[in-house]
Amino acid sequence: MSVKHSLLSLIYEKPRHGYELKIGFEQMVQGLWPLNAGQVYTTLDRLERDHLVETPGHDKKDRKLYTITSAGKEELWKWLNQPVGRSLFKDEFYFKFLCADQVSYENKEEMIRNQKETMVKDLLHLTQLKKQMMTPENRTMKLLLEGALLHLDADIKWLDMLVDNEMA
Question: Which residues are CB-contacts of 6 (< 8 A; sequence separation ≥ 6)?
Fold first, then answer.
């Protein structure tokens, strides 16, 4: 995930200071991904160095403001238009399963059950979170949660297939 691009999208709306960007980011992701303030300021320094943002000055409380530059807008649009590559074989559980097979691990069924248990907990958590989002401004996050739920459902079915295969 790109903190850099999320900050550019927040600055695109209006000039903001660092703490306001941290809060804006956490609101955007509905608190599901807390962002370290240090990461915000390090990213802002890099964005400024790369001429993607600039600082027109300070607000009334003497906080440094950031605005997006033309180059920053171009970078944001470029990033938004690029498809996201996915490599399922870099999924950590897929890799663990390959390693377990490599060493003839005898507890693969337990490993799969533990993974499934974790995924079911995630499924329940996300379902509950989706139900809590009643306001229209949460529409996009609801759609993202629905996508995550579909992925979890598919992964759980795949784990069931693995168990059936291990028992055969």
Answer: 25, 28
pTM of the model: 0.73
Alpha carbons 152 and 145: distance in angstroms, whole number: 10
pLDDT confidence of 1, banded at 50, 70, 90? low
- pLDDT tens-digit series, residues 43-98: 999 999 999 999 999 989 999 999 999 999 999 999 999 988 877 677 889 989 98
The rounded distance, in Å, linking the Cα atoms of 42 and 97 is: 37
Residue 61 and residue 165: Cα distance in Å, rounded? 63
Give the separation between CA 150 and CA 89, rounded to whole angstroms: 19
Residue 161: which H helix or E strand, with range? helix 139-167
- The 3 state secondary structure assigned to 107-146 is CHHHHHHHHHHHHHHHHHHHHHHHHHCCCHHHHHHHHHHH
Distances in Å between the Cα of 106 and the Cα atoms of 94, 114, 166 are 17, 14, 10
